[in-house]
């Protein structure tokens, strides 16, 4: 009888050991940069899992969804901060390995709840025409600067570049009316427009609306 009890204890201990060696559970960080970075990595993991060829470049729309998290974190204060966005991207690189080896799938709903703009299905551009145009230009420029080194996305980025050229010539008077001749004030208007349009939905879906309306 004692032998059977010992075997049972050993089996239980082995089961517990195996369980402890499995993927670790994750929780969503409270710190804003870490929270956005964690969700950005999880979005990247989801996109990679959905591809048949793990060596192939991710679809352009998937890249937009990943980049959305640094963009949203940088826009949290109502005016886009490139410094915050860069910090999120840096943390994504640091957190990637640890998250990929953990139970990252469990955090997908939490990330959607923490960043509802990433789950928007129906994109609505700002009602004001100038705000919409300025937001489209700034979002297109943000995507270009983020992905310009990746040649596989050249066709999409070229469309954004052409839209920016077209709209910039129309916005000079509007920017002057809003911010006067002061350059920092004009830059701030652009940062506010980017922060606003970041909340409209996934970047590539938003840019699709921009092209349809203003292209």
Features:
215 residues, mainly alpha, disordered N terminus
Describe the structure.
It is a single chain. By secondary structure, the chain is mainly alpha-helical. It has 2 domains: 25-119, no CATH class; 129-214, no CATH class. Helices cover 71% and strands 0% of the residues. The protein is built from 9 helices and no strands. It has helices at 2-21, 32-49, 60-74, 82-100, 108-114, 129-147, 154-179, 183-198, 203-214. Helix 2 packs antiparallel against helix 3. Mean pLDDT is 89; it is low at 1-20.
Helix/strand/pairing class, anyone? mainly alpha
Largest sheet: none
Shape: globular
Low-confidence stretches: 1-20
Please give the alpha-carbon distance between the first and last residues. 81 Å
Q: Tally the helices.
A: 9
Average residue-wise pLDDT? 89
The overall strand count is: 0
Radius of gyration: 22 Å
Kindly estimate the percentage of residues that lie in beta strands according to DSSP: under 5%
Order of helices and strands: HHHHHHHHH
Q: What's the number of domains?
A: 2
Lay out the secondary structure.
Elements: H1 2-21, H2 32-49, H3 60-74, H4 82-100, H5 108-114, H6 129-147, H7 154-179, H8 183-198, H9 203-214
Helix pairs in contact: 2-3, 2-4, 3-4, 6-7, 6-8, 6-9, 7-8
Question: What's a quick, concise take on this entry?
Answer:
This protein is an all-alpha fold.
